[in-house]
Amino acid sequence: MFRPSTRHNLPSSSSNPALEVKLNKRQSGVGSGGPSSRWPYRLNFYDHPPTLDITLEEFETFAIARLRVLSHIETLSHRSLPYSQIASGITTYTKTHLPLASNTARNVNLDEERRGDEIGHWVLRLAFCRSPDLRSRFVRSETALFKNRFETDDIHERAAFLRSLEFDWQIVDESEKSIYATELRSCMNWGTKDDQFKAESWFKVPWYTVPDLVGGRRVFIRAGMAYVPQSLPISLVLQAFASRLEKALELTAKNLPRLDEDERLGPVIDHLASSFLSGLGASDYQPVEGNGSSSVVTAEMVDDVARKHFPPCMKNLYDRLKRDHHLKHFGRLQLGLFLKGLGLPLDEAVVFWRRMYGATMSDDKFNKEYKYNIRHSYGQEGKRANYPPKSCQQILTSNQPGTQDSHGCPFRHFSPENLTSFLLTSYPQLDRSGPEMREILDSVKSAHYHVACTRVFEITHSIKKGEGLGNAESVSHPNKWADRSRELEKEVLDGIKKKEDGDDMIMD
Amino acid sequence: MPIPIRDEPPSSPQVMNAFYRRLFPYRPFFLWLNQDQVPAKLFTHREFAFTLAGDVYIRYNSFHTADEFKKEVVRLNPARFEIGPQYSARPRDRKTLAAGALQPQRRELVFDIDMTDYDEIRTCCTDKKICKRCWGYIAAAVKVLDHSLRETFGFKHLLWVYSGRRGIHCWISDPAALDLNDDQRKSLVTFLEVIKGSKEQSKKVNVRGSKDEGDLHPALKDALEELKMSFVKLCLQDQDCFRSERGWESLLAILPQDRDIIGPLRSQWQADPGRPSDHKWSDLVSAVAVLKKNQYPLFRKFEKAMEDVVLQYTYPRIDAEVSKHRNHLLKAPFCVHPGTGRVCVPVNPDLVDEFDPDTVPTVGELLNQLDNAPSEPAADVTRRIEDYDQTSLKPYVEMFEKHVAAILRDSRGAKRAFKEESMDF
């Protein structure tokens, strides 16, 4: 037996009589169904470490159950799905793998569930506090999980829980409300009926405590204070949850070396951290194992490969580059890493870019300002990180193109007219008035960019609808498009070759 | 472009060296970054990056004192230098620290507006050129941004600095701004950012929700009132944005595609290609006014779209990446722009309309003024008159000193309050 307490937050001791009492209560509460005083709410801010005895087996099983949920949440959020879909995905998954019932639930051992939830959380803290990267990912998934539970929680229980946290939020008084009535009202996008407005009340908080509401322009701000409607406190709560967890993790990291280490725990914790990492690396692009030299692309070949195998985003960048002999930074990065993934070695990449810039740039300028970046993206400069090619997810969501930029995803970042004409010129197989074109534009309209892109792939490669990149997989990475496209070409070529060989045989 | 008065190019190493030795206002510069008389972490843990002649770039410099900083600047004689954040340790010790131990912590909130982002809507100059006329766009942007940062976000210590060629920077030194983390900076930028979309997207203002028909956020409504004036003066009259076919076609492209309105306008304008922009705009206004009686929903749609046009043509186009991350480096005030030789001087946002980039002193002019200045106390080392007092840099340094004094007053006040509180047990 051991205590999973990290020993620095609380002067913990199992001989504390108060705790004994609580423990007994828990045991006596088994089967009765009602919430105990230790876990009165379904939601938990995990402010106090559990100071109770658990078995080694529980230590591991609770942690693994939670880990599974967290990595599922992370994959879900990487899949560029609409929020409602992510939310329902989390809800169904947690229902089976990490159930947590509300107080009104019957036939459930509430304490047992809540105890598992709490222990799982604290064990994972130990596993994930070690590096800033792990910490931030842990905080992100934990916050998503908390948000999901918060949203699905019973209204009354949630209100009671919020009261128990005792935030000191300043309430906007009536006179101030009437001063800013028009402004407040125009930020209420959910209907502006008079009685609704009258019934609503507002919290006043520094704007930086609710960054998501500010970024979405969903609240009125004046003199640095954001006016948050009471119906929207979730983002305040989430912010509080995330920042407390972040601070606690940093503290844990500092104290971890001083934890009087039980040698049975170390391996378990290590294993937990590493399995989370490997579950995630899979979303990165792994180049297919080609047979040796055949997968290498040289600078001369790029043009030919571009014509046949480039996905729309890369075709657009490449066309721009050919026309203007220049690309802005993120454009170079997006295309350059893609080419690397395609199998363009570093020296060929230098040749390629030098040639593309052409006479518009002196050798001197190129060597000084551009070569470094190319070498950097191949992990030969700076911190020597080997950057993977950007996935659709990254292209769609990070580094939004500015007014002069050409990078990004054509399906998302082009206006419908420009997208149409771009697709028609780049892919002659498409027909302006055909039903396929309409289908593609409809997908774009409903923000299913990967669906639109996959459809273009199917049409341009004469594949049946729904087949995608094989086994109905949709395009999630530009390099997957290119790989599949080259694979298909190879199959065709092999087919012809076989046939020719067969012909030869007959000739003989 | 004024003729350099000395024989050297606008910013030759000799000229720069004289500038760093005699003119650069080290004292207020140090106080501005440090916010205290005694060197604090805000200065000692701050990154400086130098660009030397021949594009050699040295990052992660840091200094214990203002004197040490000055010595190094004079010794390296950089073409320009940039300011980064306060790190968790001294940036110069970077190599002796554990990996990941050097994290950016505090940093002024900065903004960068650059004329290149306006290339598609300015008609007077292109590329690197800038004139008094296209400065109008920057002026409009500064007014809106300044208002929004002060009124909406409640910041007080904003320093606007001319970037030396075709843009302007803003540095906010309020403690609340220094403490913002990257997420918070990002959300603030997203709040302020209105013009989004790549080259291929014609309508770049989408601020009314997914169906494009909601009301504007109060902050944008405020900005719009201000911008309507600039739009008439700047886009319709001065720049005459819709005179060329390309100009008015891009206007028509961002309006609701209603054939009964767009069609007649297009043919009218094609028949009279020289029609000035303000007439074209009135054509549009009267065509839309007809709808008010019978097709009110469509009228509202057009009205909103026309507000969006005003925003698209005049709302600040900020370089968002600069503001989002604490570790982004930005050229320091009072640097010399290597291409033009002009000093990056502070700009008074209330008088930004009158500001003319062509009258900003160049480093060559300043040194010439120094040479011609009465030189009786030259041998007297103890004199209190600084060299820049004898040049046209003086008003700019004074403006800067006033700004710094206000920051110091506030930080002293905060410290005193803190002390009193901690005594109070």
What does this structure look like?
The complex is a heterodimer of chains A (508) and B (425). Chain A is built from 23 helices and 4 strands. Chain A is mainly α and 508 residues long. Chain A has 3 domains: 17-163 and 239-281, Transcription Elongation Factor S-II, Chain A; 170-232, no CATH class; 295-406. Chain A has a 4-stranded antiparallel sheet, with no helix packed on it. In chain A, a hairpin with a 2-residue loop joins β3 and β4 (225-229). In chain A, α2 runs parallel beside α12 and α21 (435-445) runs antiparallel to α22 (449-460). The N and C termini of chain A lie far apart (80 Å). Residues 1-33, 279-284 and 289-294 of chain A have low confidence and may be disordered. Chain B has 425 residues and is an alpha+beta fold. Chain B has 2 domains: 13-125 and 155-190 and 319-423, DNA primase, PRIM domain (Alpha-Beta Complex), CATH 3.90.920.10; 208-314, no CATH class. Chain B has helices at residues 13-23, 26-34, 41-44, 66-76, 135-152, 175-178, 182-192, 218-238, 245-254, 259-271, 277-289, 291-294, 296-314, 320-324, 363-372, 394-423, and strands at residues 46-52, 56-61, 80-87, 104-106, 109-114, 158-162, 167-172, 330-331, 346-347. In chain B, the strands form 2 sheets. In chain B, strands 1, 2, 3, 4 and 8 form a 5-stranded antiparallel sheet that branches. Chain B has a 4-stranded antiparallel sheet with strand order 5-7-6-9, sandwiched between helices. In chain B, α9 packs antiparallel against α10. Chain B is globular. The N and C termini of chain B lie far apart (64 Å). The relative contact order of chain B is 0.16. The model of chain B is unreliable at 1-7 (pLDDT under 50). At the A-B interface, α8, α10, β3 and α20 of A face α7 and α8 of B.
Could you name the key traits of this structure?
heterodimer, A: 508 residues, mainly alpha, Transcription Elongation Factor S-II, Chain A, four-stranded antiparallel sheet, 23 helices, globular, disordered N terminus, B: 425 residues, alpha+beta, DNA primase, PRIM domain, five-stranded antiparallel sheet, 16 helices, 45% helix, 11% strand
